[in-house]
Design goal:
- This protein is of the alpha/beta class.
- The chain has two domains: 195 residues, Rossmann fold, CATH 3.40.50.720; 137 residues, Rossmann fold (3-Layer(aba) Sandwich), CATH 3.40.50.
- 47% of the residues lie in helices and 11% in strands.
- It has 14 helices and eight strands.
- The protein has a six-stranded parallel sheet with strand order 3-2-1-4-5-6, with helices on both faces.
């Protein structure tokens, strides 16, 4: 199939490369000319284990190409993925300006039926907004689909090639058939393609990330309590994790979650709830506890040095928010360093 991916950030590049790996012809579009040239030269602009091998192989096979031309990308792809930034706005909401601005251009430029796929993490109702923006100028039929990504940094290639599930939000049988055909090579082992409405698909991503953030935060609270009463949190973790209802993952305590997804998505869901007059009280607690957790080591450091850190040289081992990534966005290490200054 002929696929276009607009945006070559973390999600876009992994998506484009992995779709090319299964034999699709993929064009990736980005406005950054210098970045596009580097990718044409075989330079992977992000760090993600195993991505470089697939990247080089598919460029060599002419299945993966790059351009700054939106027109070229739209002419090529039958399915158009929007893998654009949705950064946190000042009020905590997701900024949809990149998504909607590109959607407006798509409406002006498409000349035949396309499936437009929201791959970015977006609030409930975004597919409707994208549909309306494109429809203002489109002279042909098109469908808008929600297809959230569930990629873990450090494991993104495996997560894409061997997904636990694929979520597709679509109200169009024509678009749904194309999405099922595209993803067929990824679900041969029986993992499901779950078809639902667009709003439910959009919320599924926010709900999943917020639940995992809450799970991490709960274990951090348990760890803090263990220190008070002399219990061993690692033993507690094992005892909890062997319960199949709870599971073993995301039970490791630490100094708070970070990265490009959890902090942004939890706040965005919190803000979306408030916009509807609904208070996610549990998310309020998760955000507040995580903020305090990021600097919970400071009192221990101060105690060790008898409350005097003046003139001390302190090394920070590990800046990224998790192993196997170079991403320091919202990393607890930054909060620790700022608090030490």
């Amino acid at each position: 199939m002929k696929i276009t991916v607009i945006g070559t950030g973390y999600v876009g590049l992994v998506t484009g490369t992995c779709l090319a790996e299964t034999g699709n012809e993929v064009v990736c579009v980005d406005i950054d000319a210098a970045k596009v040239q580097k990718m044409k030269d075989g330079v992977v602009p992000i760090y993600e284990p195993h991505l470089d091998v697939l990247f080089e192989r598919n460029i060599s096979a002419n299945r993966l190409t790059f351009t700054t031309s939106l027109e070229e990308g739209l002419a090529h792809g039958q399915i158009i993925f929007l893998a654009l930034p949705t950064p946190e706005d000042e009020d905590g909401s997701a900024d949809l300006s990149y998504v909607l601005n590109v959607s407006e251009e798509i409406g002006k430029k498409i000349q035949e039926y396309k499936v437009i796929v929201d791959k970015s993490t977006v609030p409930v109702g975004t597919a409707e907004k994208v549909q309306a923006v494109i429809a203002k100028n489109a002279a042909c039929e098109f469908d808008v689909v929600s297809n959230p990504e569930f990629l873990r940094e450090g494991f993104a290639v495996d997560d894409f090639l061997k997904p636990e599930r694929i979520v597709v939000g679509s109200s169009s049988e024509r678009a749904t058939a194309l999405m099922k055909r595209l993803y067929a090579p990824f679900v041969r082992s029986g993992n499901p393609i779950i078809i639902m409405d667009e709003k439910s698909a959009e919320l599924t991503k926010y709900a999943a990330n917020s639940f995992l953030a809450a799970k991490i935060t709960f274990m951090n609270e348990i760890a803090n309590y263990c220190e008070k009463v002399g219990a061993d949190v690692d033993k507690v973790r094992v005892g909890m994790g062997t319960d199949s209802r709870i599971g073993k993952r995301f039970l490791f305590p630490g100094i708070g979650y970070g990265g490009s997804c959890f902090p942004k998505d939890v706040k965005a869901l919190q803000k979306a709830g408030r916009d509807e007059g609904f208070e996610f009280k549990i998310l309020d607690a998760v955000i507040n506890v995580n903020k305090k957790q990021k600097t919970i080591l400071l009192p221990k450091i101060e105690d060790h040095f008898n409350q005097s850190l003046s003139g001390k040289k302190i090394a920070i081992w590990g800046l990224a928010f998790k192993p196997e990534t170079d991403d320091i966005r919202e990393a607890p290490s930054i909060d620790v360093m700022n608090a030490l200054l």
